[in-house]
Structure formats: structure tokens, C-alpha cells
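Appendix B. One record, verbatim.
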Amino acid sequence: MSIQATTYESTHPPSAGQTGAIVAIDLGAESCRVSLLRFVEGAPLMQLVSRFPNSAKEHDGRLQWEIDSVWEQLQEGLRTCGEIAQEGIASIGVDGWAVDYVRLDADGRPLAAPYCYRDTRTVAAEERVRARVSDEEMFSLTGVQPLRINTLFQLVADNAAGVPADAPWVNLPEYILYLLSGVRVAEYTNATHTQLVESGTKSWCSSLFRALDLSLEAAPPIVASGTILGPIQGALAKAPGYSRAKIIAPACHDTASAIAGIPADGADWAYISSGTWSLVGTLLPVPCKLPDALAAKFTNLGAAGGDFCFHRNVNGMWLLRQCMDTWAAAGKEWKIDELVAAARQVPPSPARFDVDEATLLLPGDVLSRINLQLVAGGFAELPTDPDGAPQVASVLLQNLAARYAQVMEEIPVLTGREISRIYVVGGGSRNALLNDFTEIACGIPVSTGFAESSTIGNFAIQLAALRSEMGPGTGVNPPDVKANVQLLEGVKQT
């Protein structure tokens, strides 16, 4: 655990009515974070209290998350937050990746370790779903791009495996909220990622549940971003600093929190949430469900405050991470900063491959699959030895940027909205070479937001919730969230 590894400060005054410190938990498919926001002498201080690695593990041929281990490490980070913040903890919020979930038994305990969305069990489920409901019908009902990683396909896979259809389920960020509060919910932004929410509403799509033999009773109730679930429960309630802590559902999907954390006004900007995945898109007031949007693999997902994140999934830094793991196994461990610096010295390459090709979504020897594409396209293979890593990284980052540019060209055609600036947020925003390639490929300015934008958005929504003391069924006021982002915009690392 790293205590006070990162500290930020600002001269802005605290949000009105704010008392106590705030904790943001960010669940990541590669690492998890516990961050603390305090107001000291009128200035906000943000500390990264704990960061620990996370990855899916193979058990009996299945890819699953070790959620019990994650929970233990989160509790350790939370206890440290309580020890640091002598003023006490006002609230805790959790965001994380979407689509994966925990099935619960009658006593509220996990039936099994949750599956990872990359597990291949959904391949057969995809066939079952499409035999009953077409992609066009699913998109019309939900506005969500049908992807076999989505919760809908995973629940169908559960049915095929004999999991009781009425076994309650809860997505992973909300599962941590459930452990903290005893309340099982589906926060709206995260619920839309299941592909089971009726488009333009905040309700489950009952017709899809019926068509796929899914139990509506097993689904958690949907609540708005910023809902206060209640006081903290369990052993942590007795830990130092937590006697007054409230549990808040922020925008539980990390991308929705990250976009809420972008300090931008107007309607001429797009975002790239750059991390394990790259999510490339813009905010819309209403969903775009044109047939061409479906064909271009765009999706409409809930945003904090009621707008829609209209974007396309593009493979992301996971590709480079898979290559780095392969090189490490061959005896050379590259650090990402060193690798990017070395890649900057490599001349640009015309070599092109499809970063979203289906085989590149699966773990394993990614580089050999990239080479198969390159050879098929008439390009030379990339070196597979660790010493060739800079060349591979350069080509890979150029191809990610080229894919971003393709998506950016499609947005005005589908929405009628001209894009004149791009904000890159998330861990990938630190990759200056990728940002440079993106600006060149897209031909419009690229700005970097917070690298930990999901944390900023998480904090901003919690601040808005604490100010309004909202209850179930209500939602945060977007101007309040934006004001809190501005409050934290001047935060600097010391």
C-alpha cells in the first residue's frame, strides 16, 4: 500500500456545506485505487491512499475476478483513509468498469467468483441471443451496441450453465457499495451498460427480459447518479473516522465519472477515455439510434445528469500491456515511460492493422495476431523479440490514433455536431506520444484532462449529493457537478 503517494492542492474554497473528507474508490481491470479528498484550511487536498494491481485469473478454464481479495485490499485502504482524516469521513463512492457482476445467494453472499467479460463463455450465449432478438431490435429498444461482453449476454450464459435465473445480481462497483451499505442497487450510468435498460428511460426493458428468459426480479432497482444509499454498515462503521459516513452511488461506470470530470462547456467537444479500452465519442442530450449508428458500432450510454455518452469502443492500452507481458515473459520488462520514450525515436510507419479485429480482444499472444493482419495487408511483420518493443509500440500507437480519427470522422455525420476539440482523460492521457499521434491523425487540437478523471468526477458527484442530501429516485444537478469539477480543476500535484 502507498500512503499519501500523490497529493494535490488548490486555492479554491470548499463546496458549500461540505463537512468531513470524501473517499473515492475506482475499480480498474488492471489496478484499483482508494483516494481521499480533504479540505484543509479552505483548500482541497487529494491523496492517493492505496493502489493495488488487479487482474482476472483463470480457474478451471474460466476467467474470473478475485473479488474477495479486492474487497480485503479496499478495506485496508479505507481504514487508512479514516486514520488520515481526523475530521472524519463524510462519504464514500465507488466507480469501476461495467458489465461484470456478482450473483448472490439467499443470504446475500456470492454464488461464485464473478466472471470476466473477456471469458469465452459468452460466445455460445451470443448465438442464443441473436436467435431470439436481432441486433436491430436490441439497439432500437436500448440504444446500446450489442456486444457479447455486455451483461445481457453474460446472464444468458448463466442460464445455460444452470445458474438459477432468480439469483439476484449486482454489478461490481455497486457490489462494493452493497458491502458498504447493505443496499443493492444498479446506478443508472452503469445499468445502461448491461444492455437491459429501455432507451430514454431509467427502467429495465421488460420485453428483453421476457424474450431472453431473464428474471426481472433478479435485477437490482435502478437509482440516479449521486443517490445517497444510507449510512455505512458492517465492521467499517466502527473504524476510526466512519461514524458519520454515508454511502453514495456516484456515476458508477468509470467512463461516466471520467466524462463528468471533464472541465469543458459547450457542445463542440469530443472525448477519448483512454485506458484498458478507448471510448471515443461525445455527449448528446438524446440518444442517437440511427441504423447507421448501429452499423458503425456506436452506443448510447447513460451520463451523469441525464445526457448520453454517444461513443464507440476502441481497443486501448490493453493491447500494449499484453505485448509488454509477452516481452516480460521473454526476459525483458519494459517500463511504460521508457517504452514510450524509445518509441518516439522510431520513424513513423505506414503499416496498418485493425486494432478492433475480434482476435485482438482476447488475452494471449497479441503480437502474433497483429503480425497475421500485417502480412495479410502486405506489410512486414513486426519484431517479436523484446528489443523490437519500441518499433511495435510506435506502430501500435499510430494505429490506435488512426482508429480514433476514423471514429471522429463518423460523429459529425451521425449527429450533425461538428467537433473542434478533443479531451483525453484516463490513464492513457499520460501517453504523450499517443496524444501527439491522435492530434495529427484527427487534425484538431487535443487537450488532456485529469489522468484520474474518474476520481475527479466521482468526487464532484459526491460533493453535489452531500450538498443536496438527495434520496432515492433523485439525481445530481449537472451545473452543481460542473461547479465542483471547476473547484478541483486548479488542483496541482505537489
